[in-house]
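Writing this down once: the sequence line spells out the residues, with the fold written below as integer tokens. I am pasting one below:
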Amino acid sequence: MNWKCKHTWKRARINTLWCLLGCSIGDFGTIFYFQNVEHDWSTFEIMSLAIVNGLLTSIILETIILLKQMGFKIALKTALGMSFISMVGMELSMNITDAILTGGAILTWWAIPIMLFVGFITPLPYNYWRLKKYNVSCH
């Protein structure tokens, strides 16, 4: 496989950024909520919910983007099928990074950029490979 195609890397970066936006909305929103309310949830429970919410918001965002090109049912199926591995890798890497840097389920001004970078870079090679091998893209 040719790993030097600039056009494919550009497309993979754009796709990955859309996924990162969707995942971050649900993930960070969940963590932010639990940082600002009284609760008895464990760090693991909060981070697990943040991952699920990140996956859901990413699927929703990608489905909305795809609706411009296709019907709802096909858009949802495409969003679920083409990027789920990428989203799971992104979510896990972001939350593992959060756990390493802050102890988990804590948003800080200095940890967020690192979490976003790790969340972006982790699925990028997979997204490139999938584009190159199958010519399959979510956006």
Observations:
- The chain has a mean pLDDT of 93.
